[in-house]
Amino acid sequence: MDALPGYRDAIGKQPNVLEFYAHWKGGFDTAGARRIHDAGALPFMAWEPHDRSLASIAAGDTDDYVRGVAKAVARFNLPIAVSIAHEMNGDWYPWGRQAATPEDFVAAWRHVHDLFDQAGATNVIWVWSPNITDPAPNTRLAPYYPGDTYVDWAGMTGYFTKTGPKTFEALYGPTMAEIRGFSQKPFFISETASEQGKRQIADIDQLFSGLEAHDDIVGFVWFNIVKRADWRVEAVPDTLAAFKQRVSDPRYGFDIRNP
């Protein structure tokens, strides 16, 4: 949240989604979520069970904790997006495919969703958020899908890198096609950015051109931090100029309080 004013000023547009990462042990930051909303953005909580297995969540071992969060979210009573155990089809998180089965994931997701329903937390937009399929080509997504009753947006995490796919369709297309085989839910790009280098401006053009070519994509989150690389769009002046030009389109950055 602290970085939002500087980012907004840099790109010349009001972001309308702000993603934050929440530890499974932590409570719901109501004040922080309200600050995000008051800034005109949708709070998006990526909920990360680092210290709890998906099987134990599904079995109800964290029910008291989950109910407490759900009640706090219900009291918040404003729209909030929530994902659980994002990128579950990869192997770089402790809840990934090397540690949990698709059945574990689906059972945990449905159980948490049910607890939120019981608490009256109907203000949640549930974002199922796998990684794009290329890094794990043998991991099918359908077994990880909790079902349309339990999902509002089909998220995707995918980055433009120096050695990766060069076009939007090559990066996201295979995953989108696979998801369309079992769901028609709107897409949402949960994390994206472009690795610094000669291709960065072209990557930005590909991202926005792809978004504009698919009316079933409702939005995206630019991963605007330094983590193993500097993904900040404002880190390179020419990159910032390209991003700023494309995001100036009125389709982007409306205030969620006045859509």
Which spans have pLDDT < 50 for at least 5 consecutive residues?
A: none
CATH first level: which class?
Answer: Alpha Beta
Do you know the CATH architecture? Alpha-Beta Barrel
Strand and helix order: HEHEHHEHEEHEHEH
How many β strands by DSSP? Answer: 7
Keywords: Glycosidase, Hydrolase
InterPro entries: GH, GH26_dom, Glyco_hydro_26
Protein name: Beta-mannanase
Active site: 87, 191
3D architecture notes:
It is built from eight helices and seven strands; from the N terminus they run αβαβααβαββαβαβα. The chain is an alpha/beta fold. The chain has a single domain, classed as Glycosidases (TIM Barrel). Strands 1-2-3-4-5-6-7 form a seven-stranded parallel beta sheet. The longest helix has 17 residues.
Q: Which descriptors apply to this entry?
A:
seven-stranded parallel sheet, globular, 259 residues, alpha/beta, TIM Barrel, 7 strands, 16% strand
Give a brief rundown of this model:
The chain has 259 residues and is of the alpha/beta class.
SSE layout:
Blueprint: H1 4-11, E1 17-23, H2 30-38, E2 42-48, H3 54-58, H4 63-76, E3 80-84, H5 102-118, E4 124-128, E5 153-157, H6 168-180, E6 187-192, H7 200-213, E7 217-222, H8 237-247
